[in-house]
Amino acid sequence: MWNRIKALVWKEFLQLRRDRMTLAFVLGMPLMQLVIFGMAINYDVKHMPAVVLDESHSQESRSFVDGLQATQYFDVKAQVPTEAALRAAIDDGKAQIGVWFPPDYGRKIHAGQTGEVMVIVDGSSPTTASNAMAVAQGVGQLRNTQLLYDRMGYGDAAHPIMPVEVRIRPWYNPDLRSPTFIVPGLVGVILSMTCIMFASNAIVREKERGTLDQILVTPVTPLELFLGKIIPVVVMAYAQMTVLFGVAHVFFKVPVAGSVLLLYAMAGFFIVAMLGIGIGISTVAQNQAQSSQMSMLTILPFVFLSGYIFPREGMPLPFFLIGELMPLTHFIIIIRAIVLRGVGLVAFWPELLKLLGLTLIIWALALRRMKRAEA
After folding, report:
1. H/E stretch holding 78
2. What is the pTM of this model?
3. What is the dihedral of CA 22, 27, 33, 36, to 10 degrees?
4. What fold, for 48-171?
5. Separation between Cα atoms, residue 238 and residue 267, nearest integer Å
6. Per-residue confidence of the chain (375 residues) as pLDDT tens digits?
7. Cα Rg for the chain, rounded, in angstroms?
8. Domain-wise residue ranges, the chain
9. How far is residue 241's CA from residue 238's CA, in Å, rounded to a whole number?
10. In the chain, how many H helices and how many E strands?
11. Nearest residue to 74 via CA among 136, 24, 21, 19
12. CA dist 172 to 115, 337, 341, Å?
């Protein structure tokens, strides 16, 4: 009995060795995931873009801003003149932090009173927002310690009034609820899986069964066959999206703050890009097992490097650039801008241009590969 089992085991290993693609997935994919994701995933986000509205124009406000930048968690990108400009910078995603000093900030500190500074945080990412809030509070406590020490030299130690009060205002996700951040991105991930796996398997299934050539000799043209395979996937993706957002609104209390029509239009561009990846996989895979393996190899980096869960700002530059080449990265930025911030096309048109450019490249490569496969 053991000799027969040994022979069967040896046969399976020989078959695995002959199937080079499966062997590469078994040995190469876990190693690649460990190296890439171990180096790329980082919760410690630094150099968050910030804007400052300084109506005080005092040495005290400048010292507070210097303290923020010294932590390396904040990079002040601009000084804005008005509250509307500060709000626009955060709405458009140009800044994640807004620091607002009222006109009497410096005067109150000099008078021995409490100067108030408001720190506005983009709360759409709870992890990033929590880090920003903790660092801002820490800088405020440090300034309090320094100023109280100075006041002791002026005989004010008998009146221990805190010189600085940091008021935190998280926008878009005031309660820092994880579902509000996770669910919109999850919709993009699920659409990716649906489009890539179904589009690739639809062609490979016909190829594996030997019916593809039979279909091509019928009056059905290649374009008609192609559209017949793709249109059901598009309909399925939109149906999924509708159900997911309905469940998210009912069970997770995630409202769509912006235009629903704009959201569906942007999803259409993303779906087309994902279908191109699926078609490209179908031209390489010889059977459905290979198609599924290649689809998973594609989807996993999408999940970890697109900003769906982990903030991209904390990733090393090479992995940040890899994320820029993924359509899901830009769609997640777009979908969160519409769903959470309620902004329009003006706020995220650069991400739309990147998505369209990647879509053209993906389809050009897929069609080129398809022509080679037919030849």
Report:
1. strand 74-79
2. 0.77
3. -120
4. abc type-2 transporter like fold (3.40.1710)
5. 8
6. 677 666 666 766 666 666 666 666 666 666 666 666 566 566 667 778 889 999 888 888 888 888 888 888 888 888 999 888 988 888 888 888 888 888 888 888 877 778 888 888 887 777 677 777 777 777 777 776 766 666 565 444 455 566 676 777 777 777 667 778 888 888 999 899 889 988 888 777 777 776 655 555 566 666 666 777 788 888 889 999 999 888 888 888 888 888 999 999 999 999 999 999 988 888 787 777 778 878 887 887 888 888 887 778 777 888 888 889 999 999 999 999 999 888 889 888 999 999 999 999 998 888 787 766 555
7. 27
8. 48-171, 177-374
9. 5
10. 14, 5
11. 136
12. 26, 10, 6
CB neighbours of 165 closer than 8 A, spacing ≥ 6? Answer: 114, 115, 116, 117, 140
CB atoms within 10 A of CB 81: 11
Identify whether the C-beta of residue 73 lies closer than 8 Å to the C-beta of residue 132.
yes
A 10 A CB-CB count for 310 gives 20
Rounded-to-integer distance, Cα 351 and Cα 330, Å? 5
